[in-house]
């Protein structure tokens, strides 16, 4: 039953943040499942082992660990998130380098017809071929967006921005009415926000790792940026915090209070009751989309995709989907894409990089106008944002990736293992038990190369002796794994399969590999052996690897 379930199950991992991964104490699991494991033919220990994982504060029953063990297709929701997830869960595959942990990725995408303004759809229809809505993932087709007239795009962007300002004013009036505001305050809301000023939007869940208040780290510097009468800038925020997330709620309070600070009067707005209507207004009507999570904790994020498809420029940390989307000409990257380290130092460095981009690039580019008053250089970036983000980050592409890379293979595996009253699944379960019991008898010893220095293009020869123990009748793969010394067999891996050339009287086998390395430099290498089973979703799902 376990083999059938795992074969046909795909698990999508959504966050590296601990709070987003359910885990329970063993005594709590035992309390609620004490009458259940016996019906599965398991004892208490075996049942609890299905979900055992140590998150750093002791072993618990982890729901993601349970799902990872009971699936054969596993994926993160962006390329960087896949890498982060492999490192986070690599302990479930002992002796497997993080790069080879069987977790891939499918980058999230958004439903374009829901989020792209009708005005933008009409605009691109003038340069894209008929039926383009059915070819959303055709990157070559989207190159035609570069032919858009800057003045026409500017006209559409200004119209959407004016719509957004009107929407925000109505929302603020509702907020003020709820709060019992004075007639003077109500009247002032009717003139709130300037449709001609550079407008930066930030709308998402107010989880602390998203650092909603990063832009407020240096209030004097921010005041100078927002308060320039020649080049005004305004900020609009929206979002909600989980009812139990008090730190997240405090971030909202900070922004709300700063919006009342005389230095920022009329320059900062927090829109309450975040919903799809607010999301649409902001991802269509702002000029810049701000995203500054603490890398690498943003699994994917999608609001910036919606914004870019409408011609907004992303100003974002290289986290989530943005490392795949950013090309140097369709927005801006905050910082240098580093992860980890001291949080306070990282926050200071990222805030400084954000201010620097605003002062030196973003604000000047927006206010650089042609004789006709059109920001042509800005609009070139906007066109590039539409042309590059639209085909790569739409839901059609995403679903296609899931079907081709995960769902169809899992469905086929499930059908195969369920055939003949589940006979293949029973055989796989029997193989797994045999491997588990016999693996301690398997050993491998590598014979180092006699010459440690070689020239580029020379053939290397590596030999190893494998003692298959009680698994002599089962197929085993023996291979050389090597990488540059700086990667230390953790990344940048290359492999060369070893061939059996001789069997000794004691049952051991001599394996040999002759190959030319695919990289040059100082190399490190190892020899490993693992069992081969074609029905496994990954060769490492046998959970048995031996290294020399």
Structural description of this entry:
The chain has helices at 2-7, 26-33, 44-49, 63-69, 79-88, 112-115, 118-125, 139-142, 150-178, 183-189, 219-226, 246-258, 276-285, 303-309, 322-325, 343-366, 376-392, 395-438; strands spanning 10-12, 23-24, 52-54, 59-62, 73-76, 104-105, 198-203, 233-238, 268-271, 288-291, 313-317, 331-334, 443-447, 460-467, 476-484, 494-497, 499-503, 509-515, 523-531, 546-547. The chain has 548 residues and is an alpha/beta fold. Strands 9-8-7-10-11-12 form a six-stranded parallel beta sheet, sandwiched between helices. The chain has a four-stranded antiparallel beta sheet with strand order 13-14-18-17, with no helix packed on it. Strands 16-15-19-20 form a four-stranded antiparallel beta sheet, with no helix packed on it. A hairpin with a 5-residue loop joins β17 (499-503) and β18. The two termini are 35 Å apart.
């Amino acid at each position: 039953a376990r083999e059938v379930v795992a074969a046909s199950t795909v698990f999508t991992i959504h966050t590296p943040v601990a709070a987003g991964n359910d885990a329970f104490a063993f005594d709590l699991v035992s309390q609620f499942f004490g009458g259940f494991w016996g019906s599965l033919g398991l004892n208490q220990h075996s049942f609890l082992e299905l979900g055992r994982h140590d998150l750093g504060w002791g072993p618990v029953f982890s729901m993601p660990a349970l799902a990872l063990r009971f699936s054969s297709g596993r994926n993160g929701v962006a390329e960087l998130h896949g890498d982060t997830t492999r490192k986070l869960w690599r302990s479930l595959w002992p002796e497997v380098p993080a790069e080879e942990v069987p977790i891939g990725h499918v980058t999230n995408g958004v439903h374009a017809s829901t989020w792209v303004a009708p005005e933008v759809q009409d605009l691109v229809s003038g340069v894209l071929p008929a039926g383009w809505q059915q070819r959303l993932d055709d990157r070559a087709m989207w190159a035609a967006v570069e032919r858009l007239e800057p003045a026409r795009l500017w006209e559409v962007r200004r119209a959407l921005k004016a719509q957004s300002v009107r929407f925000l004013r109505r929302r603020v009036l509702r907020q003020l009415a709820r709060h019992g505001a004075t007639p003077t305050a109500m009247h002032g809301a009717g003139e709130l926000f300037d449709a001609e000023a550079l407008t930066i939007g930030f709308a998402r869940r107010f989880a602390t790792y998203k650092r909603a208040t990063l832009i407020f780290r240096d209030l004097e510097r921010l005041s100078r940026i927002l308060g320039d009468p020649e080049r005004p800038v305004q900020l609009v925020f929206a979002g909600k915090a989980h009812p139990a997330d008090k730190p997240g709620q405090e971030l909202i309070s900070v922004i709300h209070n700063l919006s009342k600070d005389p230095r920022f009067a009329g320059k900062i707005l927090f829109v309450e009751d975040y919903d799809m209507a607010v999301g649409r207004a902001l991802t269509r009507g702002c000029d810049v989309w701000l995203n500054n999570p603490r890398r690498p904790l943003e699994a994917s994020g999608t609001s910036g995709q919606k914004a870019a498809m409408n011609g907004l420029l992303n100003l974002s940390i290289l986290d989530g989907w943005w490392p795949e989307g950013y090309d140097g000409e369709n927005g801006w990257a905050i910082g240098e894409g580093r992860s980890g380290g001291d949080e306070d130092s990282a926050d200071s460095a990222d805030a400084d990089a954000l201010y620097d981009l605003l002062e030196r690039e973003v604000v000047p580019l927006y206010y650089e106008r042609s004789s006709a008053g059109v920001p042509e250089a800005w609009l070139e970036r906007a066109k590039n944002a539409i042309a590059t983000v639209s085909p790569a980050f739409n839901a059609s592409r995403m679903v296609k990736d899931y079907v081709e890379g995960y769902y169809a293979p899992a469905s086929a595996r499930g059908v195969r293992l369920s055939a003949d009253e589940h006979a293949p699944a029973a055989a796989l379960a029997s193989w797994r038990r045999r491997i588990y019991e016999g693996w301690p008898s398997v050993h491998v010893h590598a014979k180092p190369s006699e010459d440690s220095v070689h020239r580029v293009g020379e053939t290397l020869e590596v030999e190893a002796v494998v003692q298959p123990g009680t698994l002599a009748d089962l197929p085993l793969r023996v291979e050389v794994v090597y990488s540059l010394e700086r990667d230390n067999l953790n990344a940048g891996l290359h492999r060369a399969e070893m061939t059996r050339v001789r069997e000794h009287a004691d049952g051991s086998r001599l394996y040999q590999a002759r190959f030319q390395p695919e990289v040059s430099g100082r190399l490190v290498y190892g020899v490993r052996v693992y069992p081969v089973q074609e029905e496994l979703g990954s060769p490492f799902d046998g959970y048995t690897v031996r290294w020399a």
